[in-house]
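Task 17 of the worksheet. Students: predict the tertiary structure of the chain below and write it out as structure tokens. Keep your answer in the requested format; marks are given for formatting as well as content.
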Amino acid sequence: FSYINASLSQKKKFDIIFAGRLMAHKNVKLLLQLVDRMRKRFPYLRCLIIGNGPEEECLRSFVVEKNLESTVTIMDFADEKKYISFLKQSKIFISLSVREGFGLAVLEAMACGLPAIVADHPENASQELVENGITGYVCLLNLDILEEKVSFLLENTELITQMQKQARARAFYYRWDTITEKLIRFYYTFL
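Model answer:
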């Protein structure tokens, strides 16, 4: 948390951010479809995609095809300081991945105070990090549902502020020193 706390709070430049490998199971194209749909309602919507991978060219082509260049920025992974800065410049973290072993990017975003919207899928362990309706939303991969949740957050600054505080508190639970202390206590129960 020290590297996150050391990074200053930033003015919010992005409404939505995603960070991760650009692979089919991450469903980044679905996120871009969501952004394309939402920009009619939110003409100044801004989305940042951080990552690289086999889907990158397809995603870049979709951005051009849908004329999303002024709405969506796709960039390669950044160093840790820049990455944290980008998170702090964003309002909502969205990961629609159907296969996550833990969801470190979700946890990092929550530690920066971002509510997270993640996929409701049996192979997505990151959904265990999100308290539905408190630190974000766990959603089916349905554009109508996703649009409803993202719109609701973007239109309710009081709710988003409340979720930001809750997300940060939830992420604090996963600090190394907290986990180590719990593990030690657990081991002592067997002595």
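Marker's comment: The chain has a mean pLDDT of 91. The chain is about 45% helix and 15% strand.
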